[in-house]
RNA sequence: GGUGGGGUGCCCGAGUUGGCCAAAGGGGGCGGACUGUAAAUCCGCUGGCAGAAUGCCUUCGGAGGUUCGAAUCCUCCCCCCACCA
């Protein structure tokens, strides 16, 4: 494929590309380029937010390029004071290896293992002496650091920023130096860090890497970016049922964005759906079903995706019971509140009572409205708690 | 090093003439109604325990103290921020 054609494919969906000319030039060299992605080993649960970037990497691979995943074990083992509230836990070497392995396993659901290399950044960061660090730090200024949006904001608002945090972008830049990255990818929130890499590479006499950022996708709540800490994520490892269900719970206005960034559905089709939804020719629910199906299929295969879809339609559209329910043994005479807490359908007795009072607890379709209700089962019954939790109750003799 | 301002429930954020504060408001979460779905919208709930009426227990950075009674006052300690040096 010609460099120009490659560029066309690669720049699709990208938000920033610094710079297009440089990328084209590099593609013209005709060699496999080193494509870098930094990986945080403290969060080995991959979710659809990661998938956006990984899919772009896959495109590079399919065009013959070489992907290098940098496991940030060095920074991980020190503990990352960055971000906001929670300090990330310090990891042992063992944990890091394990997490990295788990990360790779998940990432290979998208990436081609043959064209992927794993590197640990402790390899080059550990041997650095304090003097080396100071020399590195001398190459960047505080003013430039404060250009980073979140630093700037925190500085203005009086939220603490530790010196260590200034060092992290520099450490990340050293990764680029070490592997002589041609291109580094990241989410748009990484733009600043990636650009630091360019500058530092130049300082070390290398050609600056090309920087490409991908959109950040919103999580299932439709507001905040998808992230484990917001609890609005859809994980690679979610069960097909969960994955499908969570995808169905995204707000309608996110449907086509997800399609563009997370599926191979042709662009023309996506645009057509967009149009049809706008003209109300088609029910957004059905388009969303297609989306949920496509993504679930990618991660779990056709078979499972079909099952998940049927299950969803049964339970939520037809209001039937799910095919699989947790089974719970009940002794006759057990109080409903006790049971809810015992099976962890409610975190506390107060919460259980609240659920009952609000009409959220049903036994074989009948609302249970009495807190003092005691079971007297003569056979299996289905207990529904809220909208999503189902239990099969089995009388215990 | 000096001066001043802060640390509140899952998060943000009111509240400091001591009681009416389990603590306003928003977000999130949960439940209900409705629906085209676990979308949107509307209503309600949201520390724990106990319960049909406002009872008890544990919460407002930490440890003590004053008081019939403290998120609110005092002492010491920890942490953050700003300005000056």
What can you see in these coordinates?
Helix 10 (163-179) crosses helix 11 and helix 12 packs across helix 15. The chain starts with a helix and ends with a strand. Helix content is 47%, strand content 13%. The chain folds into three domains: 3-214, Rossmann fold (3-Layer(aba) Sandwich), CATH 3.40.50; 240-317, Tyrosyl-Transfer RNA Synthetase, CATH 1.10.240; 326-395, Structural Genomics Hypothetical 15.5 Kd Protein In mrcA-pckA Intergenic Region, Chain A. It contains 17 helices and eleven strands. A six-stranded mixed beta sheet has the order 1-6-5-2-3-4, sandwiched between helices. The protein has a five-stranded mixed beta sheet with strand order 7-11-10-8-9, with no helix packed on it. By secondary structure, it is an alpha/beta fold. The structure holds one RNA strand of 85 nucleotides.
């Amino acid at each position: 494929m010609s460099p120009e054609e490659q560029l066309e494919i690669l720049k699709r969906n990208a938000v920033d590309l610094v710079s297009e000319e440089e990328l084209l030039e590099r593609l013209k060299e005709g060699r496999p380029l080193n494509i870098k992605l930094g990986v945080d080993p403290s969060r080995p649960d991959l979710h659809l937010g990661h998938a956006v970037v990984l899919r772009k990497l896959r495109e590079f691979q399919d065009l013959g390029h070489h992907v290098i995943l940098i496991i940030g074990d060095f920074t991980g083992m020190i503990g990352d004071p960055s971000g906001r509230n929670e300090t990330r836990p310090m990891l042992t070497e063992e944990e890091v290896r394990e997490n990295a392995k788990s990360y790779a396993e998940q990432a290979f659901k998208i990436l081609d293992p043959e064209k992927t290399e794993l590197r640990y950044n402790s390899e080059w960061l550990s041997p650095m002496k304090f003097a080396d660090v100071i020399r590195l730090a001398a190459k960047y200024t505080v003013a430039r650091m404060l250009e980073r949006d979140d630093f700037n904001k925190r500085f203005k608002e009086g939220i603490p920023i530790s010196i260590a945090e200034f060092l992290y972008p520099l450490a990340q830049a050293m990764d680029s130096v070490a592997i002589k990255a041609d291109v580094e990818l990241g989410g748009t929130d990484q733009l600043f860090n990636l650009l630091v890499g360019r500058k530092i590479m130049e300082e070390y006499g290398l050609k600056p890497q090309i920087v490409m950022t991908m959109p950040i996708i919103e999580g299932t709540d439709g507001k905040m970016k998808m992230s484990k800490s917001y609890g609005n994520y859809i994980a690679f490892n979610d069960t097909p049922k969960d994955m499908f269900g969570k995808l169905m719970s995204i707000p309608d206005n996110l449907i086509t964005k997800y399609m563009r960034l997370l599926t191979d559905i042709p662009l023309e089709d996506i645009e057509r759906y967009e149009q049809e939804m706008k003209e109300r020719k088609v029910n957004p629910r059905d388009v969303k079903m297609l989306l949920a199906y496509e993504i679930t299929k990618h991660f779990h295969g056709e078979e499972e995706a079909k099952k998940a879809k049927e299950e969803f339609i049964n339970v939520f559209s037809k209001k039937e019971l799910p095919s699989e329910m947790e089974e719970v043994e009940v002794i006759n005479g057990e109080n409903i509140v006790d049971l809810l807490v015992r099976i962890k359908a409610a975190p506390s007795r107060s919460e259980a009572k609240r659920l009952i009072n609000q009409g959220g607890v049903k036994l074989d379709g009948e609302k249970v409205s009495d807190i003092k209700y005691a079971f007297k089962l003569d056979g299996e019954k289905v207990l529904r708690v809220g909208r999503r939790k189902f239990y099969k109750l089995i009388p215990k003799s």
